């Protein structure tokens, strides 16, 4: 049964009496979600996700494979937990403000057709609809990539710049406590990860909080993903989303141009909006394969050079100066990051926030191919315009899946209690040495240099397994997308939603809907 759970006080509050839990019907959710996305009105992420879902679901329903109402059931969230975190501001270690600040927090579990649910935790200005919409996208993303997780998302409506690290740790641990002690999150039920405004630091705090409440659970490391490697994280997780985007772009162009290797990216002009955790890694991977990164942006502005920018040097400048402005090799510097969307280029990577391309600016977009590194960076109405203009979009629920794929590997590592490659690396190395020695002897060639020998005979470590698994999943999903796109004669985004919906619906068909 799907629930919508809202509490006006914290889920856990031992010092004050509970004001109760309000259970709302699915119908009330539908009323709340019926906001429009017309020009001049505030962008609503949930409305836009529903638009793409409904379009794909109508095609799926025409096949008459699923019971009446099942696809509408899949669309609705299983549960939405909403509560308030009280914060007493700290001016020093031993001095507290007498006033209490209230922060509204959420955790949405969109689908439990597979457990655990999976989704990040955001610390930014957000709404309930944002969290529900993002949790729905997580269901679609996991299903599309055949990752056995349900979709979830959490967050706190907060400006992190207003709080110091001590306060943020207390807020994070309170958020985790509310959900862990109510059984909402655990390694078996719902596993959070990093998102906008959170990093491995916050996830380490959450994981440590879980261990404090459940010290006898030997799978406590699996309570979160996106942790530092020293705390049970997996190598390659930090750059996984960017690496996955590189694989997706490579496969897209390989099919488009009929060149089945990395040469297909040679000379492609790339613009990256949002040179942060995702955009920076994507840019580096593309540049290594011969792409020319001509423009990048972040919240401080944008820089452009038609001859190309050295991504590593740009990131070094950004790290030291805390801004992109003033980069010496930039021919053009603009304070408005969105100005970069107008640049003529082969590939535009949107890895900042949602609603970056909308009805107001869609006609100014100069890219031939747009890659959705962020979630919902293109509004539904703008997407229709791009399609009419012949500008292709590689959709978010496919292209930015690298993070959830690597998180799945991290979760498996934590449950298995062993580092990938630890039991096989030496055996693989010995086997390769025997092969290389035999080939060298039979061929009569001169002895290899120490470096050549080391490269040819090294065993696979954890990062090799993560990269290999990531590439494999992204490629398999791409092949599925092509088949669905051709079968239904639809665009890539609709094909992605069709494939995801069919996977979830098939799961419900097999186990039934209870009661």
TrEMBL record:
The keyword DNA-binding does not apply. GO terms for molecular function: glutamate dehydrogenase (NAD+) activity; nucleotide binding. The active site is at residue 153. SUPFAM superfamilies: Aminoacid dehydrogenase-like, N-terminal domain, NAD(P)-binding Rossmann-fold domains. InterPro entries: Aminoacid_DH-like_N_sf, Glu/Leu/Phe/Val/Trp_DH, Glu/Leu/Phe/Val/Trp_DH_C, Glu/Leu/Phe/Val/Trp_DH_dimer, Glu_DH, NAD(P)-bd_dom_sf, NAD_bind_Glu_DH. Pfam families: ELFV_dehydrog (PF00208), ELFV_dehydrog_N (PF02812). Residues 234-512 form the Glutamate/phenylalanine/leucine/valine/L-tryptophan dehydrogenase C-terminal domain. GO terms for cellular component: mitochondrion. Belongs to the Glu/Leu/Phe/Val dehydrogenases family. This is Glutamate dehydrogenase.
